[in-house]
Amino acid sequence: MGGDTVEKIIEVARFIVKRYKEMYSENIDEIKLQKLIYFTQKESILYTGNLLFIEKMKAWRLGPVSIKVRNGYRNRSVNKQNYNLKTFNKYIINNVIIKYGLYSSSKLINLTHKERAWKLARKGLLENERSVNNIDVNLIFDEKERLYDTYWDMYCDEFNDHKGDENDR
């Protein structure tokens, strides 16, 4: 699951902060940073079959949150320029920033709220209820198998007329 390509989440955050500023000439807000970190984990799993980082993310009401990154954002340690990331991981992170960086924080919240892993971590909670539940990365691995329809902005198995296969019944 991990391997020798696993990074420290705070270094991923530092790289995102730096690259976002270089690409868009503005500072990234914490909500956007947290969502981009989640999507870097997801993209790493999708493209490499490996975790980008092993630190857990919480299923907060506004989407996935890393406590380490939250603390780092608040004490400004994410603004430090020191990180030691593998070249391919930088490629994945850059692609995530390009793919999602222009979205508003509220749009990114909405996108993460569609993620099965986040939904299941919040199962049984009210919409605005606080949560300390971790997001199960194994569910993100399972997402590799689901087809996403970008036109309709939903997974194919979420369509009302989806029949599924024999195992779904």
From TrEMBL:
The organism's place on the tree of life at top rank: Bacteria
Antitoxin SocA-like Panacea domain ranges (all copies): 33-119
InterPro entries associated with the record: SocA_Panacea
Protein name in the entry: Phage-associated protein
Organism expressing this protein natively: Streptobacillus moniliformis (strain ATCC 14647 / DSM 12112 / NCTC 10651 / 9901)
Source species taxonomy: Bacteria, Fusobacteriati, Fusobacteriota, Fusobacteriia, Fusobacteriales
